[in-house]
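Hello K.,

You asked for the raw outputs rather than the summary table, so here they are, unedited. I folded two proteins back to back in the same session to keep the settings identical. This is the first:
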Amino acid sequence: MAAPQLFPTAVGIVFSYAPAVIFNVALRSVLVFLVAAAIRLFDLAIVEVDLGTVGRGAGTGIATKSDVGDLRFGRSRHAYQTQ
């Protein structure tokens, strides 16, 4: 006589695939985080290039929210100098 199964088939399938699913979700989360961090650092690098020469924070070394918005929408420091 065959030994009884410890788990029914459906539960066995769930337990056999669960580690792979957990690993994939965790890996995807880490990759999304890294991509978001890279984009954020790239944005900060763009602000650093023009830091202290744009808008209300000119010469102070401090970028304001409006400065960041202006840089993202393509308004350069020259627009402020000609107004």
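The second followed immediately with the same parameters:
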Amino acid sequence: MSAPLPILTPRRRSRLLLRIAAGLFGFLLMIGLVTLGIFTLTDTARSKGWAELARTLPEHKAAVRRQGIPLTAAQLKRSPPVPPDQNAAPIYLQIAAQYEQIPVAVRDVDNAALRAFNRPQRAKADRAAARKILLRDAEILRLAEKAVQRPGCDFARFWEQGNDARFPEFAAMRHVAHLLAARARFAIESGNPEAALKDIAAGMQVSNHVEQNPYLLDLLVGYAIEAIVDRPFLETLQQYGHRSDVLAGASSAETVSPRTPSLRHAVAGEAFFACNTFRLLRETPEGLPDEIEKTWLAPIAARHREDALDAWESRTLAFWCDADRELKAASGNLLAEHHGMKRVRERFAAQDLEPGYELTAAFTPTFDPFPAKTMQIAAYRVLRQQAVALLRHRLANGQFPDSLSDLPEKKRIADPFTNQRLRYRKTDTGFLLYSVGVNFTDDNGDDETIDRGNTLDLAFRYSR
């Protein structure tokens, strides 16, 4: 038989509660002291690291200047400026003003309809919607036709505004590309490939225009525009690639653009943009980068704000200096640019836990896709050029070559992802031509979509 439980008198209950409270207080005090100790050690380590890096800011600014990287808005301006009668930018701003008059909800519906019409499997409703949009935006198209006749494009942006800078032309120029692609598709369907190629060439020129500006976002928008008009170009080849006049039009400089995308030109404005962002933060009382304000580092950074901002700016400039050196060393070889930028990212990522590298995780992923995107758009360009060369070979010889080795050497174009010739396979009804794509792996021409809208291979299947 078990012993009876002791009677918990009021006095005993009070003593027990006091002991529990004392133990809990001691435990919480210990946790608090440990936390305070960790915070103090972290504060000391971070502040010391930031102070050391802050002293390197003048050195990194000098390095940026030596490499010719712009650090002021004046250095980003064109020299000599684009003559007014050759500058397409004012016309695009007119287009942007008209486009912004369309309600946002309507624009969203229009974009979805135009994207759907630009796909191979399009419904009657997509066709009807695209035709309606083309009729409504006839004035925008008229202005676009005027803009693409001008060789230059300089928006003379107010870079000093930093994150408050607006780029209304981006959405408007993409809309122009969708309109041109839609009109080209209607021309293809109506048996007028010449008109289709004219609109495709205009779309390529819109892409050329936006890529003239030294900013990564411009490059990305230019890539998006070129991808939009790439689809009707390939469809024109699919439908009319047996005609010599169509191949002559497709080979023109306006349509199959020979230019190589310049990642180095696009990053030219990034160092200035970063410095300007830090300048604006210094002018804002208690201002810290958004990426820091949301983390446990915020109170420590607030206590040592001046050193922290200088340290982060120094590291940011070091990143862009390093990037510029790698891009310059690559001499326009896109695969070398990719590997060079990978080395830059790895060097900085390896130190992202150290003082001064806290923003690496914020700006490095933003830049990550660009080298691969640059190779991707270049791959689309060489696919178009190689496809035209193959179709010309059939016109001249009555059949497609058994391999690309049968083409003249100057007609064999390298895949930017490998620096070797594109993959090619002759089929019973035509050919399969492809680049290995962003995974750098030959997937036998499989263009199944993988992450971020990318495909395994970048493929063009011709069958006629």
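The first strand starts at residue 414 and ends at 415.

Happy to rerun anything if the numbers look odd on your end.

Regards,
P.
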